[in-house]
């Protein structure tokens, strides 16, 4: 990815984009070494064309305040590092174009909710990964491996395609009101992770996974608010996947 | 400071690191140290596919694959290594399938395969369907599948730990591996990790350039750390510029688009690749296509208001076909450029993509100390390494293959070494240099900003050491790098804290980039020929008499305390294919 802090407009082929504009970024900041409480901080910047929220954060970090802290890596929506609450909604900073947000008022950027804030926009991801690991997110088979590939028809492959797209960014889980209020619920992502294997024709671990999801009252906690589906930057139909897992539990049939 | 002890330490949790961990972890006490959470690694960005001569959809053979790899690499490939890779490719793909990777399927349920640049049947007759894929997120699926297997096998990860130094010690006059020094981002604490075997799998260095498909975090750490400790770097002047980056942004649109039938056109709508590569056209190797594109722009046939890009045309493809085979990359065009690929051609231009060079290794992934000797206990695999299977130009889908084949080999070799090798004593205060580096940077008040120096470095590399190079541009780049280095020595960071100090780590990463840029340009200046990804305007032909050899770059200390690059050379391993003119 190009460093676009000062991306001259001519460099970004302008496709119906706004050439250059003023934007106020309202950031939720917290320095564990000096702050007792998080605080808000505003920066007004000149940004260009197809710049994204991540470009604005970089501009602040690289030109104004190097201590601003956030995670990012790929910068094109594939690594899942930079899920944030942008104007009150969970999104990836690298996939959210500034020009698509209302620019007449400040754009608020906060850490995702429900996980402990470590510094500025960085949260503790360990509980999130622990929930994922708990549903045995790996192919379970019995008997000897075949010498060639396991056969799977294109239709069988298609059956679980949607949930293979997950990049573990936590946008869904940390948009879920039940997750915020309940220390036990392992959240939508873990169910998506389970779905990916439960509906894979090659997998033989569905029973075990369904037990886990059932025993801990996992899926039943879902109140179908659709926050997770709205939040998913990969367009996964999260709520639908959860419904399918519920159906499988009720009828023990996948 | 904390200390730990493991038989095997793997640095990096991309495809290569995790593939190694799955092998080493079942044989020896293993830890993986990674500056990113494993699933954030850039392997996840790979789109198009991983090749193997499975022959599921048409006749194919590993021998043809070897030939294509050697020829695509413009004969700088070590042919023994290429042969191993092509042979082990089949099991590498089947292993992933057995681990659960959801490959796209043929109607009869086997793994489907598609065409990719430079892969041909019977030594160049026509394009062959060799790339196994999972829509256009093959790398994502490889990364997820390997991570899932690591969970299954309880692999020990130190996530968000940066390795900043490699520890060697002399034993009977021989340099041996003793461990690594790591920095915990969350706490700012230093960890010394003692190990019998160290595997570097830290990926590429695309951030040397401004326009790149690589992640912000791909700063060549492993290469630079090894280089600073006296390990040579091989063939660093060979960098691949991928033809189809989104213009102005560098975000990649996979070659799979052309594999599925997309066509490159200039401002006149001409399919210009017919002129440059009459047989393979748009699917000629990347260096050929990237130069053709840059040449179209240079000669005034570029598209757009500034005539500074060409167009990738998918409009003749069925939208349903695009959705099935290329969903993610068409979404990139929509999201980032606001272009609808069903109906509009997409603006593209070459983007810095892949480091063919790296830490030299044997086919067993042992790191070379020089042309003959290995460094006991030190291994490398993946983009950080140079085996060399990619030579002067890597073929598409050969890297996902490389990380699996040589990642696996590295895990096995590292564990086998640890099983028989004695422990090497740690030298006194192995962390001292790292502490000095970090504290020097942290304590310096009121220096220039790191980001400004980084931007200047990336701009000079784009301007002077990209698709077209010459003595004049390369000398300019070297002069710029030297002055940027002086500025770097006076730069400072604003964040003086301990916890999550990414400001400080970006400064360290810039130091790595500066070292690597100097090595790249020095090698390019010395190589007075054009071969694969390295094109000299002042020496436009390949020169097998003088330059069919690998470059080995060593860091040497000057009398005045500074450092310089010293170049040496290593013969290419030729087994069955004699160099021939590359025609596509
Ligand atoms: C956009 C894109 C598309 C591509 N498409 C294809 C394709 O279709 N087919 C193909 O064959 N190839 C493709 N490639 C190339 C291929 O994806 C990469 O070369 C390959 O994935 C590199 O894998 P790796 O394991 O070596 O490194 P990476 O996956 O980059 O992993 C590097 C690891 O090292 C760690 N690390 C780095 N520095 C440190 C440090 N100092 N301390 C600790 N850890 C560190 C990181 O945390 C990370 O885990 C593509 C590349 C890109 C950029
Ligand atoms: S930086 Fe990778 S998803 Fe945004």
From TrEMBL, chain A:
<keyword id="KW-0004">4Fe-4S</keyword>
<dbReference type="InterPro" id="IPR017900">
    <property type="entry name" value="4Fe4S_Fe_S_CS"/>
</dbReference>
<comment type="pathway">
    <text>Carbohydrate metabolism; tricarboxylic acid cycle.</text>
</comment>
<dbReference type="InterPro" id="IPR004489">
    <property type="entry name" value="Succ_DH/fum_Rdtase_Fe-S"/>
</dbReference>
<dbReference type="Pfam" id="PF13237">
    <property type="entry name" value="Fer4_10"/>
</dbReference>
<keyword id="KW-0816">Tricarboxylic acid cycle</keyword>
<dbReference type="InterPro" id="IPR001041">
    <property type="entry name" value="2Fe-2S_ferredoxin-type"/>
</dbReference>
<protein>
    <recommendedName>
        <fullName>Succinate dehydrogenase iron-sulfur subunit</fullName>
        <ecNumber>1.3.5.1</ecNumber>
    </recommendedName>
</protein>
<keyword id="KW-0560">Oxidoreductase</keyword>
<dbReference type="InterPro" id="IPR036010">
    <property type="entry name" value="2Fe-2S_ferredoxin-like_sf"/>
</dbReference>
<dbReference type="GO" id="GO:0008177">
    <property type="term" value="F:succinate dehydrogenase (quinone) activity"/>
</dbReference>
<keyword id="KW-0479">Metal-binding</keyword>
<keyword id="KW-0408">Iron</keyword>
<dbReference type="InterPro" id="IPR012675">
    <property type="entry name" value="Beta-grasp_dom_sf"/>
</dbReference>
<keyword id="KW-0001">2Fe-2S</keyword>
<dbReference type="GO" id="GO:0022904">
    <property type="term" value="P:respiratory electron transport chain"/>
</dbReference>
<feature type="domain" description="2Fe-2S ferredoxin-type">
    <location>
        <begin position="21"/>
        <end position="115"/>
    </location>
</feature>
<feature type="domain" description="4Fe-4S ferredoxin-type">
    <location>
        <begin position="156"/>
        <end position="178"/>
    </location>
</feature>
<dbReference type="GO" id="GO:0006099">
    <property type="term" value="P:tricarboxylic acid cycle"/>
</dbReference>
<dbReference type="InterPro" id="IPR025192">
    <property type="entry name" value="Succ_DH/fum_Rdtase_N"/>
</dbReference>
<dbReference type="GO" id="GO:0051537">
    <property type="term" value="F:2 iron, 2 sulfur cluster binding"/>
</dbReference>
<keyword id="KW-0411">Iron-sulfur</keyword>
Automatic annotation (TrEMBL), chain B:
<keyword id="KW-0249">Electron transport</keyword>
<dbReference type="GO" id="GO:0050660">
    <property type="term" value="F:flavin adenine dinucleotide binding"/>
</dbReference>
<dbReference type="InterPro" id="IPR030664">
    <property type="entry name" value="SdhA/FrdA/AprA"/>
</dbReference>
<keyword id="KW-0274">FAD</keyword>
<feature type="binding site">
    <location>
        <begin position="399"/>
        <end position="400"/>
    </location>
    <ligand>
        <name>FAD</name>
    </ligand>
</feature>
<dbReference type="InterPro" id="IPR036188">
    <property type="entry name" value="FAD/NAD-bd_sf"/>
</dbReference>
<feature type="binding site">
    <location>
        <begin position="34"/>
        <end position="49"/>
    </location>
    <ligand>
        <name>FAD</name>
    </ligand>
</feature>
<keyword id="KW-0560">Oxidoreductase</keyword>
<feature type="binding site">
    <location>
        <position position="242"/>
    </location>
    <ligand>
        <name>substrate</name>
    </ligand>
</feature>
<protein>
    <recommendedName>
        <fullName>Succinate dehydrogenase flavoprotein subunit</fullName>
        <ecNumber>1.3.5.1</ecNumber>
    </recommendedName>
</protein>
<feature type="modified residue" description="Tele-8alpha-FAD histidine">
    <location>
        <position position="42"/>
    </location>
</feature>
<feature type="domain" description="Fumarate reductase/succinate dehydrogenase flavoprotein-like C-terminal">
    <location>
        <begin position="454"/>
        <end position="583"/>
    </location>
</feature>
<dbReference type="Pfam" id="PF00890">
    <property type="entry name" value="FAD_binding_2"/>
</dbReference>
<feature type="binding site">
    <location>
        <position position="254"/>
    </location>
    <ligand>
        <name>substrate</name>
    </ligand>
</feature>
<dbReference type="InterPro" id="IPR014006">
    <property type="entry name" value="Succ_Dhase_FrdA_Gneg"/>
</dbReference>
<dbReference type="InterPro" id="IPR003953">
    <property type="entry name" value="FAD-dep_OxRdtase_2_FAD-bd"/>
</dbReference>
<dbReference type="InterPro" id="IPR015939">
    <property type="entry name" value="Fum_Rdtase/Succ_DH_flav-like_C"/>
</dbReference>
<feature type="binding site">
    <location>
        <position position="394"/>
    </location>
    <ligand>
        <name>substrate</name>
    </ligand>
</feature>
<dbReference type="GO" id="GO:0033765">
    <property type="term" value="F:steroid dehydrogenase activity, acting on the CH-CH group of donors"/>
</dbReference>
<keyword id="KW-0813">Transport</keyword>
<feature type="active site" description="Proton acceptor">
    <location>
        <position position="286"/>
    </location>
</feature>
<keyword id="KW-0472">Membrane</keyword>
């Amino acid at each position: 990815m190009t460093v676009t802090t000062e991306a001259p407009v001519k460099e970004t082929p302008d496709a119906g984009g706004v050439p250059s504009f003023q934007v106020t970024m309202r950031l939720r900041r917290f320095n564990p070494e000096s702050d007792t409480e998080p605080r808000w901080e505003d920066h007004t910047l000149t940004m260009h064309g197809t710049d994204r929220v991540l470009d604005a954060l970089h501009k602040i970090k690289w030109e104004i305040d190097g201590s601003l802290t956030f995670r990012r890596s790929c910068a094109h929506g594939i690594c899942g590092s930079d899920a944030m609450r942008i104007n009150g909604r969970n999104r990836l900073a690298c996939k959210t174009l500034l020009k698509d947000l209302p620019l007449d008022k400040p754009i608020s950027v906060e850490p995702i909710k429900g996980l402990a804030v470590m510094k500025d926009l960085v949260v503790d991801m360990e509980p999130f990964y622990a929930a994922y690991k708990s549903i045995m997110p790996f192919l379970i088979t019995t008997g000897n491996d075949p010498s060639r590939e396991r056969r799977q028809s294109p239709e069988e492959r298609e059956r679980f395609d949607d949930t293979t797209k997950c990049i573990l960014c936590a946008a869904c889980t940390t948009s879920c009101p039940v997750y915020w209020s309940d220390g036990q619920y392992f959240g939508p992502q873990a169910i998506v992770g389970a779905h990916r294997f439960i509906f894979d024709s090659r997998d033989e671990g569905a029973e075990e996974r369904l037990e886990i999801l059932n025993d801990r009252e996992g899926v039943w906690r879902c109140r179908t608010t659709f926050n997770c589906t709205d939040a998913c930057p990969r367009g996964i139909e999260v709520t639908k996947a959860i419904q399918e897992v519920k159906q499988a539990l009720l009828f023990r049939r996948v | 400071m904390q200390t730990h002890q493991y038989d095997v330490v793997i640095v990096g949790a991309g495809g290569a690191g995790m593939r190694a961990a799955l092998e080493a972890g079942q044989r020896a006490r293993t830890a993986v140290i990674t500056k990113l959470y494993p699933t954030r690694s850039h392997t996840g960005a790979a789109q198009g596919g991983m090749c193997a001569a499975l022959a599921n959809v048409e006749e194919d053979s590993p021998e043809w694959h070897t030939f294509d790899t050697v020829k695509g690499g413009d004969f700088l490939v070590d042919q023994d290594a290429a042969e191993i890779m092509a042979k082990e490719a089949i099991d590498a793909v089947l292993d992933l399938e057995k681990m659960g990777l959801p490959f796209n399927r043929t109607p009869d349920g086997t793994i489907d395969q598609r065409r990719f640049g430079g892969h041909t049947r019977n030594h160049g007759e026509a394009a062959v369907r060799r790339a196994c894929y999972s829509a256009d997120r093959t790398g994502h699926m490889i990364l997820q599948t390997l991570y899932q297997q690591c969970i299954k096998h309880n692999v020990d990860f130190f996530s968000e730990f940066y390795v900043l130094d490699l520890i060697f010690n002399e034993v009977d006059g021989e340099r041996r591996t003793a461990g690594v020094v790591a920095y915990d981002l969350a706490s700012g604490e230093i960890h010394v990790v003692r190990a019998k075997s160290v595997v570097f799998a830290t990926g590429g260095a695309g951030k040397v350039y401004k326009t790149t498909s690589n992640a912000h975090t791909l700063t060549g750490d492993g290469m630079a750390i090894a280089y600073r400790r006296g390990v040579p770097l091989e063939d660093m002047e060979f960098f691949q510029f991928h033809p189809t980056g989104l213009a102005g942004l560098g975000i990649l649109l996979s070659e799979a688009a052309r594999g599925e039938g997309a066509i490159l056109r200039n401002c006149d709508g001409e399919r210009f690749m017919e002129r440059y590569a009459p047989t393979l056209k748009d699917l000629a190797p990347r260096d050929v296509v990237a130069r053709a594109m840059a040449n179209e722009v240079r000669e005034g046939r570029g598209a757009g208001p500034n005539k500074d890009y060409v167009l990738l045309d998918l409009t003749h493809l069925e939208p349903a076909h695009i959705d099935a085979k290329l969903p993610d990359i068409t979404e990139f065009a929509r999201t980032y450029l606001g272009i609808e690929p069903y109906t509009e051609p997409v603006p593209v231009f070459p983007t810095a993509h892949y480091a063919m060079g790296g830490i030299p290794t044997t086919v067993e992934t042992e790191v070379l100390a020089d042309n003959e000797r290995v460094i006991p206990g030190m291994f490398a695999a993946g983009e950080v390494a140079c085996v060399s299977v990619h030579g002067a130009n890597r073929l598409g889908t050969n890297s996902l293959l490389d990380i699996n084949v040589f990642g696996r080999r590295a895990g096995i070799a590292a564990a086998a070494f640890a099983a028989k090798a004695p422990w090497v004593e740690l030298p006194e205060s192995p962390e001292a240099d790292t502490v000095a580096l970090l504290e020097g940077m942290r304590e310096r008040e009121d220096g220039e900003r790191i980001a400004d120096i980084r931007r200047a470095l990336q701009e000079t590399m784009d301007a002077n050491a990209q698709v077209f190079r010459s003595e004049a541009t390369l000398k300019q780049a070297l002069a710029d790098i030297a002055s940027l280095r002086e500025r770097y020595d006076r730069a400072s960071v604003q964040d003086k804290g301990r916890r999550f100090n990414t400001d400080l780590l970006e400064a360290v990463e810039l130091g790595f980039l500066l070292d690597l840029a100097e090595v790249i340009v020095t090698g390019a200046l010395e190589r007075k020929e054009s071969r694969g990804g390295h094109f000299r305007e002042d020496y436009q032909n390949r020169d097998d008499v003088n330059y069919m050899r690998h470059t080995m770059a060593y860091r040497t200390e000057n009398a005045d305390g500074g450092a310089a690059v010293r170049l040496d050379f290593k013969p290419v391993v030729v087994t069955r294919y004699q160099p021939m003119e590359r025609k596509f």
